[in-house]
Amino acid sequence: MPLRPLSAALALCLVGCLPEPARPPGALFDSGVPISFDVVVEETAPVDVPPVDRPVAVDAGADVPDAPTDRPIVTGDGPDPSRRYPSGPYGTLVGGVMQPFELADCAGTTFRFAGPDWVTARATLVTFTAGYCEGCAELARSIQSSVNLPYRPRGLRVVGVLTDGSVPGDPATRAFCQQWIFQAGISHPMALDLASALRSHTDRLTLPQWVLTDENGRILWRAAGSAAALNELRTRLDALLPGAP
Predict the structure, then answer these.
(1) Does residue 94 belong to any structural domain of this protein?
(2) Span 107-119, mean pLDDT?
(3) Alpha-carbon gap, residue 73 to 241, rounded angstroms
(4) Domain CATH for 136
(5) In the sheet where 209-214 sits, what is the strand order?
(6) Using one digit for the tens of pLDDT, what is the confidence trace for 187-212?
(7) For site-directed labelling of 151, which of 11, 25, 75, 100 has its Cα 20 to 30 A away?
(8) Whether the Cβ atoms of residue 148 and residue 141 lie closer than 8 Å to each other
């Protein structure tokens, strides 16, 4: 019997029995009906992502007051941060310990002589001045440029005390104090002695008065402010504070 008709029939059967090739999603049947696919999405537990610290934008043109950040810059082995100010007795002459005081500054904030700035300072210069003193503002500018700025990185702290306003015996107001430090161009703290609590440290006839203390509050030197006293002060600071002059 011939085999050709059987082979042809078998070939047609094999072609018709083959599975239809896979179609990509969205393909159509030959009849034009779209293929429907059921998509299964596996749910997973939420993952906690820690917040990312991002830099805060700073306005480079903003005016930043110098006084709050005008603190002694001490590197290396500095004073012990756990130390406490001596409990007394206190004095006003060389060799005595300066009595710690708390006074309001020009902004109304309480300034503490034995506060955090004292802990980090290797020495403190207290300048007593008055608004009526004609030469005080000029000497304050000299202290700012020749003492405060160059010696602060070596551990010096400068503190100003304003005793009077434009008239002797007339207490300086906060507004007067702010105007005075602006005109003098100083950046160190300036406290107001409205009740003359520190009068024993000053002689109203010889203002300004400068008092230099060591890191323990002991008075090392004091003088009436002048150009000659400024030179002597710088010589003492060079010998007292570490670092190159």
Answers:
(1) no
(2) 92
(3) 12
(4) 3.40.30.10
(5) 190-192, 156-162, 123-129, 209-214, 219-224
(6) 999 999 988 888 887 766 689 999 99
(7) 100
(8) no
